[in-house]
Amino acid sequence: MALQGLIRWLLPKEDHFYDYIETQGALCLDAANALSGFKNGQTAEQVRDAVQVIEHKADDYVHKMEDALARTFVTPIDREDLQKLSSELDDVVDLTNLAARACVVYGVTKASPEVSKLMDLLVQTTTVIKDSLPRLRRHDYAGLIEQSRALRQLEKDADVIFRGAVSHLFQNDAIDAKQLLREKEVLEDIERAVDHCDNVADLLSNLAVKLG
User: Fold this and answer.
1) Which domains, from first to last, does the chain contain?
2) Residue 128 and residue 147: Cα distance in Å, rounded?
3) What is the pTM for the complete model shown?
4) Which DSSP string corresponds to 190-204?
């Protein structure tokens, strides 16, 4: 581990890896904000198209990361960690995209209060992610651990909202089976996106311990 650190110190810095990761974090927030357009009056189709554009950009950065890892001998942090972090960030965008597509596929025309709450929480979690990732470049490991704790708490909040929303769907006799299935699919995709934000928190916390 010490020898690896010495090699990294001696060789030229490959800061574009940080650029890729930070851009992916920003795209997570962009996708969450685009999805939130649904609760602010945009149609499901408009939201789907907006998120899709961001998802394509995110895919491009995954490919850039993979190509750079294949061409670079020494990376600023372990290549396995970079690959895992890039993959989890991409999953956040992919699941946000799935939520947007589900609104169209299942004919959801309006965001329920529960869906709106989860959308807001996804924006909050991806905001923390975007703000956290530059701390890797600055070696602010204490800050990373603090932000990781904040992400875990937001994930717990999202889980409470999700379970409450699903319980409401099943217990409310006024909601028919079709509406139940529609809402449940959207809720699950958003909740899974928040779960992957929690996975990012775990990776960042582990990196802080490993590198600090």
Assistant:
1) 13-211 (1.20.58.220)
2) 7
3) 0.89
4) HHHHHHHHHHHHHHH
